[in-house]
Input
Amino acid sequence: MTISKSQSLLMLNAVVLTAILGILIAVFWRGNQSQETTYRTISDFALLDQEGKFHKLSRYANDRGVVLYVYGVGCPIARNHLPALKTLREKYMKQGIEFLLLDCNPQDDRETLQQDALERNIDIPILRDEGQLVMEMMGIKRTCETFLIDPKKRRVIFHGPVDDRLGYESQKKEATHHYLQDAIDSYLSGDAVKNPDAEIRGCLISKISDAAQNPTTPDYAKDVAPILERRCFNCHSTGGTAPWALESYEDVLGWRAMIREVILTKRMPPRQPDMHYLPFSETHGIFPEEASTIVRWLDAGAPRGEGEDPLATAKITSDRRIDVENAQIKIDLPPQNIPATGEVAYRTNALKLQLQKDAWVRAGKIQPTEPEVLHHAFCRTSPVEGDNLNNVEFSKRGISNKWRSTNVAAYVPGMTSFEFPTDTGMKIPRECALVFLYHYTTIGKSVTDRPKLGVFLHEKPPLFELEMETIERRNFTIPPGESEYQVEDDYTADEDILIFGIAPHMHYRGSSFCCKIIPPEGREKTIFSMPNYRMTWQGIYWFKEPLAISKGTNIICTGIFDNSSTNELNPDSSETVVYGQQSWREMFEGWILYSKRTEKNSEKFDKLFRESLLKQNDLGSEQKPAGTHDE
Output
């Protein structure tokens, strides 16, 4: 077969065109692939805003995008950007773009942000980066830096200025380039987003480490290990409640990725109340500067440095863990057989207790042999006549309906024992029944738990007898997918009392809890807030000093429930949730532990009451949390 010259040229052209087309496709594909891979991934993080509300990046996973704008009080450019940000928020709100402000300034405290938001009518949440952890992670240097983030994949889609209208001591009437708006439009339409080659103009942010004249990498032995020993070692050591130990540098090195993550997301240390309100008798959580020190050290590669390892020789002091074997009252409780699967109904039983005289509890512990299956347990008292336990009446909470009970001991997630404050205690009558309430869960294999009770007693009656008021509501219905369902209940004091502590209780969908008081004179004050409540970590929060509550004061407890899919603890976001004792249903309770004025304690009661009333005028001002650095 003979091929003509024209046919040869056509074939050659076809080959060349095919090759060119292949090259173009490859270049285009690589370009698109390169654009995708240039999106920087960041770690999940959590912060509180100026009102104390908890925000976590991953909780915005159902939104299309999050705009994070670096704000700062007093920065003129940041102030002037607010109207443009509000306009963009209104434009893109229905398309799933959420707007947040981020304040990294070490000089901007909560009151400053609240006042600034009030004066400038800022209705966008202002997240406080107290320890500058987010600032360090994202490489932020000045205010007005703007980020568009894909919250589901935690990718930084855009980083640049809002627009080019504002400059240093100058501004144009209208912007020529709308960088953020263009980025959002491209992102929503599925197009690649490129960072603009434009200067971000804003106020430089001072680093905490520079201000402390400590810009170098923290030292493990001198700086990092002592923090881990104070905040983590009690649980993360042999015999502790944590699943793994931090008893050496090697342990820390092996768990460094998890340590960084749980600090950034505020998962650990557990039980972190808002330190803005009343101080506590012990530190819950971690100070911002401590968190910053640990994360900076981890990001620097976690160098070992010189010196002995403090964690290798660390020990738990005797007052940090309660040993049942040393208790004055020790009881081996009836064995509890737990099946492998299925729902285990609440179990209640009673034991007769006969003492020579009334006793006063200073601490108590219920110690399971199978902690994996015991969700919680309570030991309370009830009157009993003779040896007949049949006359003990059990309510749904294991409390006698005819008699105000005393909490002898408890075991709940995050609190395996409790100790009452100095000079306080709960009374055990000479003759009574100990009422036990158990809540067990199955783990896929049958086990037998053999719990023990240990009760530690005062040598003589304390000044203040503690009583407990439960503020609760049961008539609520949480719709499927509802992320901020509010439940509230209150209690009005019928006489002057001193509140020593408070304990919130909700289940998996509980996301935040707060307690406010309204004295007879009228001004509402927040006394306790748990912005990121987690059922897996509960306990009693003892105030550093008792709080005076005048007769007629209304005590209001408010809980927020998250029944959405972004709640990682939620068993099923498609369910309608009502009250129930099992964890997949919900409870709402606030336990108030208080004492009344008696003839015996009147002098001390009146002194503490007067001092507390004087200090309450300052409630709402920023307070340094209890358990300061010299603890």
In short: The chain has four domains: 41-209, 216-313, 324-462, 467-618. The CA atoms of residues 463 and 600 lie 7 Å apart. The chain has eleven helices and 32 strands. Residues 23-37, 394-404, 620-631 have pLDDT under 50 and may be disordered.
